């Protein structure tokens, strides 16, 4: 079964393998398959589920809500997010204004079929809204009981520090950050993680397999497998494009003997690698079919020897991105 970890310094425990439905529910995967994946996740011991209003323009929340219907609500940890344009994408259907946050939480709860979410997250930093306004809205969401905890996603270390200072003044605390993090994408290690440790935030990391590249299924010099994310024109292809270079794909193939020596598959190695960081509370995984979950949850509880961690670094030398400046939010609200 999947191991639990505390979410940052809070008292909330979440499964260190968390199920997320970005790029799948409502877009890549039919509703029946999506429901089967959610039920398989539950059977495997996953109780934490991450979504966002922007995924498939609100449809992903609806699919997750239907898939979780009938489950004991107290036994689940449901996360969602607000920031990106949704619905008809009008001028106030985006960002972290008080109007959008208050309307956003109500819409998310309605679609998810629940009275509250365990974690409500600022999906990016909003330069168009005073931070005080955003934090006050989140404080009111917590006091109303519509969200139990507040987190952020892809905020810089300085933004996290400023947000936590205001949150504390307003009677709540930020408990989490949701950044991209993998053996290939390590940009949070220099600044975001030390700041988060100091301030009590845990990382709920997305794309721990670098959009699937660290699974090893993409081979240098060959076309991507049919039906893979690299062939998806609804968003997956664009996200994975940065990794689809032969030098990177060749480096990833160098992880095969490392994984074999550790008794793991390549996806399991990728997930276990991010979970070795003590500031990581959970790694988010998606699935287009239930069997993927059955393999990936076996990474839970795995402890990698220092020799294995060093071998990963050696194999990926030259392919890893570490520049903290790559943690960014749009300077202007997206339309």
TrEMBL record:
Keywords: NADP, Oxidoreductase
Transcription regulation listed as a keyword: no
Domain NADP-dependent oxidoreductase: 16-315
InterPro entries, alphabetized: K_chnl_volt-dep_bsu_KCNAB-rel, NAD(P)_OxRdtase_dom_sf, NADP_OxRdtase_dom
The UniProt record lists the keyword Transcription regulation: no
Domain of life assignment: Bacteria
SUPFAM superfamilies the UniProt entry points to: NAD(P)-linked oxidoreductase
Family label: Belongs to the shaker potassium channel beta subunit family.
Protein name: Aldo/keto reductase
């Amino acid at each position: 079964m999947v191991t639990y970890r505390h979410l940052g310094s809070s008292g909330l425990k979440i499964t260190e393998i968390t199920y997320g439905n970005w790029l799948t529910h409502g877009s890549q995967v039919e509703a029946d398959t999506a429901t089967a994946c959610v039920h398989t996740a539950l059977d495997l011991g996953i109780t934490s589920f991450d979504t966002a209003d922007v995924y498939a323009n609100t449809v992903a929340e609806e699919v997750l809500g239907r898939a979780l219907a009938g489950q004991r609500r107290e036994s689940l940890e449901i996360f969602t997010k607000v920031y990106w344009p949704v619905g008809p994408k009008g001028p106030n259907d985006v960002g972290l204004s008080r109007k959008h946050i208050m309307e956003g939480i109500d819409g998310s709860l309605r679609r998810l079929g629940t009275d509250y979410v365990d974690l409500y997250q600022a999906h990016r930093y909003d330069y168009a809204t005073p931070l005080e306004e955003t934090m006050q809205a989140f404080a009111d969401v917590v006091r109303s009981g519509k969200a139990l905890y507040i987190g952020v996603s892809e905020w810089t270390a300085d933004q996290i520090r400023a947000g936590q200072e205001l949150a504390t003044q307003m009677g709540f605390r930020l408990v989490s950050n949701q950044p991209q993090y993998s053996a290939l994408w390590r940009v949070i290690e220099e600044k975001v993680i030390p700041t988060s440790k100091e301030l009590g935030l845990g990382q709920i990391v997305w794309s721990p397999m670098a959009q699937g590249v660290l699974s090893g299924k993409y081979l240098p010099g060959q076309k991507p497998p049919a039906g893979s994310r690299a062939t998806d024109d609804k968003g997956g292809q664009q996200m994975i494009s940065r990794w689809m270079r032969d030098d990177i794909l060749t480096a990833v193939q160098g992880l095969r003997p490392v994984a074999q020596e550790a008794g793991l598959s390549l996806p399991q190695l990728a997930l276990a690698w991010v979970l070795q960081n003590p500031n990581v509370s959970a790694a988010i995984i998606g699935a287009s079919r239930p069997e993927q979950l059955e393999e990936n949850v076996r990474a839970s509880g795995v402890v990698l020897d220092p020799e294995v961690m060093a071998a990963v670094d050696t194999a990926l030398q030259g392919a890893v991105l570490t520049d903290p400046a790559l943690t960014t939010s749009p300077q202007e609200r997206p339309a």
